[in-house]
Write a structure and sequence with these properties.
The chain is α+β, with helices and mostly antiparallel strands and about 450 residues long. Helices cover about 20% and strands about 30% of the residues. The chain is built from eight helices and 25 strands. The chain has helices at about 10-15, 35-45, 50-60, 75-80, 110-120, 135-150, 170-185, 220-225, and strands spanning about 20-25, 90-95, 100-105, 125-130, 155-160, 190-195, 240, 240-245, 255-260, 265, 270-275, 280-290, 290-295, 295, 300-305, 315-320, 330-335, 345, 350-355, 355-370, 375-380, 380-385, 390-400, 410-415, 425-430. Strands 7, 8, 9, 11, 12, 13, 15 and 16 form an eight-stranded antiparallel sheet that branches.
Length: about 450
């Protein structure tokens, strides 16, 4: 058995994938997101020869002498014809220092839901601003979405500096305005970088024309931004995915609970509580990769064995006895509606939280959030696609949901159409960065789902 009693720095670095950074790009239309991503891929030698040849061929067909690097990410025909990004384009690339998963999200307001999708798992967001236009309405919207999703790092990339003669005062004014706005939303870390994605200034290599800027290039920042944190500081949550009972001659009494540790650390001998039942036990053993270990930490996939035979099934959450959350059938959350069909009061849905899916009813929609000025519009009655608002839900079974501010994993959920399994809405439990509007007393007829 392993003798380790707590994770070392090397252990944490290895198992929390510190060499992997998930990040998303966002910006207004024509700010140059796709060009920036294409430049990153091209200058970091992450483009295959046949891909570059295809881009050069397509660029020549459009009458362009130089290859249009935006075509490396604008994969849809509609995107290439209009020169815009519509879908979320995921790209995977690597440098000697780190691996990356990039989500290039669209800039149009009608694709806000796509940015929510791309940034929901991101550890960093790159928000582009056209140096000629400065901070615009869509810039504030993207900063608000990043703050709402609790993205820990935000990069302001002031693009097209070549079109403003690489003027430092232009960059400084934009950086000051954006930083003040993002900080007011609670964004913890903001880094401003002046760039020209078209020319390659400060994207991968330092700019020779902006010697007044002494900070990192975009790639240097992406390679060095810290994304590893000590999991011992997080409250442990272990959603059960599968109950293992071999019932063989070799293992007649084996009962293990398999899953991925969503957050925190669990140890052999630790007192735990099973949620939502509230039953108590002690961790008798932890199995990882076929071996017994003394400690497990997020995001390891392990099997827990408890000292007591308890009625535990998929969807239950094992948590430390001294750090549980009270299960409830009433859930208030900030949500972004993703589906073209509106979300309405009284609607019957399925709610998926970690590994559990339960029936639920939309009891109230107290307010809709306007991301432009963060104002709350009370009593909207419904949420259209791309709209963000407050929702009160009633579930058929109690759920141990953490506040999203405390845990992005166990504080998030999805609303699903029970008829066809379509994802309707992405939810974040608890308060958003803005004050919640006064809840209304609108209650819908339950009709058959009365709980």
């Amino acid at each position: 058995m392993s003798q380790a009693t707590h994770p070392t720095a090397a252990d944490v670095a290895g198992l929390s994938s510190s060499s992997l950074l998930r990040f998303a790009t966002a910006g207004s239309v024509d700010d140059g997101k796709s060009t920036l991503v294409g430049r990153l891929l091209h200058d970091s030698k992450s483009v295959l020869a046949d891909q570059l040849e295809a881009v050069e061929h397509a660029s020549r067909n459009r009458g362009q002498e130089a290859p249009d690097l935006a075509l490396l990410t604008d994969g849809l025909r509609a995107e290439r014809e209009q020169g815009i990004t519509i879908d979320v384009a995921y790209r995977y690339f690597a440098t000697p220092r780190r691996r990356f998963i990039l989500a290039d999200t669209p800039g149009h307001v009608q694709y806000t839901r796509n940015m929510v999708t791309g940034a929901s798992t991101a550890e960093l967001a790159v928000v582009l601003v056209d140096a000629r236009n400065g901070v615009v309405e869509q810039t504030r919207r993207h900063a608000a979405v990043a703050a709402l999703l609790r993205v820990p790092h935000v990069v302001l990339a002031v693009n097209k500096m070549d079109l403003v003669d690489y003027a430092e005062p232009v960059f400084a004014a934009i950086a000051e305005e954006f930083t003040a706005y993002a900080a007011s939303l609670g964004v913890p870390e903001i880094t401003a970088i002046p760039i020209s994605a078209l020319k390659g200034d400060n994207v991968v290599t330092a700019s020779a024309t902006m010697d007044w800027y002494g900070g990192p290039t975009v790639l240097e920042h992406l390679e060095t931004v810290p994304v590893t944190h000590d999991p011992t500081g997080d409250v442990a949550r272990f959603p059960v995915q599968y109950v293992i009972r071999p019932q063989t001659a070799e293992l007649p009494d084996y009962r293990g609970y398999a899953g991925q540790l969503a957050s925190g650390v669990l140890r052999v001998g630790q007192a735990v509580t099973v949620l939502p039942s509230g039953r108590a036990s002690t961790i008798e053993a932890i199995d990882a990769l076929g071996q017994s270990v003394d400690v497990a930490w997020a995001p390891q996939s392990v099997t827990l064995r408890l000292a007591d035979d308890l009625d535990i099934s998929r969807g239950d959450v094992i948590a430390p006895a001294d750090a549980t959350v009270t299960p409830s059938q009433d859930l208030t959350a900030t949500v972004c509606h993703l589906h073209d069909t509106p979300l309405t009061v009284g609607q019957r849905v399925l709610l998926k939280h970690t590994t559990r899916t339960v029936k639920a009813i939309v009891k109230q929609i107290p307010s809709r959030l306007t991301l432009d000025d963060l104002s709350q519009h009370p009593r909207p009655g419904l949420l259209e696609a791309n709209e963000i608002g407050r929702v009160v839900l009633r579930t058929a079974e109690p759920l141990p949901v953490d506040a999203y501010a405390d845990s992005r994993r166990t504080g998030s959920f999805l609303l699903i159409d029970p008829a066809d399994g379509t994802t309707l809405t992405a939810g974040m439990a608890g308060d958003a960065f803005a004050e919640a509007a006064e809840e209304t007393k609108a209650v819908a007829e339950d009709e058959g789902w009365d709980f």
